[in-house]
Amino acid sequence: MLSPTAAAGTRWVPDYPHDWAIVDVETSGFRAATHRVLSLAVLTVAADGTVHGEYSTLLDPGCDPGPVHVHGLTPERLRGAPPFDQVAERVEALLRGRVLVAHNAQFDYSFLAQEFLRVGKLLPVAQRLCTLALNRRLAPPTADLKLGTLAAHYGIRHAKAHDALEDTRALAGVLGASLAAASSLGLSLPLVPCPPRANGSYGPRIPKMRCSYRSPGPFAPAAHSSRA
Prior knowledge:
Elements: H1 4-8, E1 20-27, E2 37-45, E3 51-58, H2 68-71, H3 75-78, H4 88-95, E4 99-102, H5 105-118, E5 127-130, H6 131-138, H7 147-154, H8 164-185, E6 191-193
Helix pairs in contact: 6-8, 7-8
């Protein structure tokens, strides 16, 4: 396996002396409190770009997998996969003491924090770095800041979108190139503190009340007659 340094085609800079846990999750929906993680991948990388470990797994969510047309994870593919509680300790060991990195990191962080809470654990992450937020600061000349677009811009191979392992490998290269660009510009990293999340529940959704009146349509102001 190529290291992120080779994949990015650039030297990882020593200006940001962190160990990184590069993460991607595929989920059954967008709401961490009610939807579940279907697959996850973690790539652990040292500050110099050396890859320490790589782990990926499908997960049995115990529910409908949601938008199969996006992630391709059918009930048949997930059948026989472990539930999260069986992999929690391994994931915990990979994350502990490292900065969690993801593209739109709030999403991945929230889902992982919620999965850990379900098994009576706290997500062992003190800080996270969002590569989307970092590239907003870098402002590369790209049409958008999607992972695939940034990978192409930085010359990173991105074999398959919405595949957790392939996304983490591409993100490792994007991270290395982004750190080099940030260092050349003297930018600080948008690191976000992650205090322990002891309660990830959300309040119940308030149902919409049906209106007994039909919509009268768009408002049309009456014409004012001129006074004599």
